[in-house]
Write a structure and sequence with these properties.
about 20% strand; binds 2'-monophosphoadenosine-5'-diphosphate; 6-stranded parallel sheet
């Protein structure tokens, strides 16, 4: 029951109506009998004044925090009182926590990715990885991997310059990160190196409604030694993951990362451990609707 003591969090983004996060978090609150609610908070794009008003509105309305999604993950940053080193390095905030009247920004995407990877029994420390894509999601994944002592990451992107910018901003100097132009040939060649243990798709290729798309060329077999992680979760089993399973590689869907980044935000807001199984089940229910 919503009453005068109900604590509020929400999702700032546009559009938000298809987001799984409200169902995921509200299921978690219900399972733990917490008097909290998670609301969709649509904030129009290209309305800078509204992003500021929305963020300050969290304080004015006594919200405990919020998630932030596309297209406002960067735009909210200049309206916050504090930003974590991780969020600064990724260049985006996905979680706001109201702490003693101050707006604090975090990014749980990178750690959520690594947590999901470990849940799938892949330990990145000392391993080599290929990350396809160079957008915001790729930045979070690369940050998560570098923070967990991965040996080397190659970022492959259709637009090489974007991968080069990511690499130079995120630790190209360390020698652990390099950029490569994405073509079917470069991807197959890079993935065929026996040192590579992990292939991550951070692009939207394969996402509904273009479900037949795949970053991996049809005629080639995926190396069976790979763990293939697709950030896409709609559909849950993308064409890329089907190809991975057929070739004997380990396939990891994007719902694990969504749940883990949500769970990390949940703990920051409530101080309570998140019920992962409840959250995943709520997401799967929403996807089937
Ligand atoms: P996000 O913040 O979710 O990562 P984004 O910043 O729009 O989204 O980045 C999307 C990524 O998917 C980019 O790396 C994009 O490649 P470009 O930088 O060349 O645009 C990649 N991408 C999207 N569609 C693609 C396609 N059909 N083939 C290959 N890469 C694609």
């Amino acid at each position: 029951m919503i009453d005068g003591r109900t604590q509020l969090v929400g999702l700032i983004g546009w559009p938000v109506e298809h987001s799984l996060s409200p169902a995921m978090h509200n299921a978690a609150f219900a399972a733990l009998d917490l008097n909290w609610r998670y609301l969709p908070l649509p904030v129009r794009p290209r309305a800078t004044a509204e992003v500021q008003a929305a963020v300050h509105g969290l304080l004015a309305l006594g919200f405990r925090g919020a998630n932030v999604t596309v297209p406002h993950k960067q735009a909210v940053m200049k309206h916050l009182d504090e930003i974590s080193n991780t969020a600064r390095a990724i260049g985006a905030v996905n979680t706001i926590v109201v702490q003693e009247g101050r707006l604090c920004g975090y990014n749980t995407d990178g750690d959520g990715f690594v947590a999901a990877l470990r849940q799938a029994h892949f330990e990145p420390a000392g391993r080599q990885a290929l990350v396809v894509g160079a957008g915001g999601a790729a930045r979070a994944v690369v940050h998560g991997l570098l923070s967990s002592e991965v040996e080397r990451v190659t970022v492959l992107n259709r637009t090489l310059e974007r991968a080069q910018v990511l690499v130079s901003e995120m630790g190209g100097h360390s020698g652990r990160l390099r950029a490569l132009l994405l073509t079917p040939e470069t991807l197959v060649e890079a993935a065929s190196s026996p040192e590579i243990g992990l292939l991550v798709n951070t692009t939207t290729v394969g996402m509904w409604p273009q479900v037949d798309g795949s970053i991996w060329p049809e005629s080639k077999t995926l190396p069976a030694s790979l763990t293939v992680f697709d950030l896409v979760y709609n559909p849950l089993e993308t064409h890329l993951l089907q190809e991975a399973s057929i070739s004997g590689a380990r396939a990891v869907d994007g719902l694990g990362m969504l749940v883990m980044q949500g769970a990390l935000a949940f703990v920051k807001w409530t101080g309570v451990q998140a019920p992962l199984d409840v959250m995943r089940a709520a997401c799967e229910r929403e996807l089937r609707r």
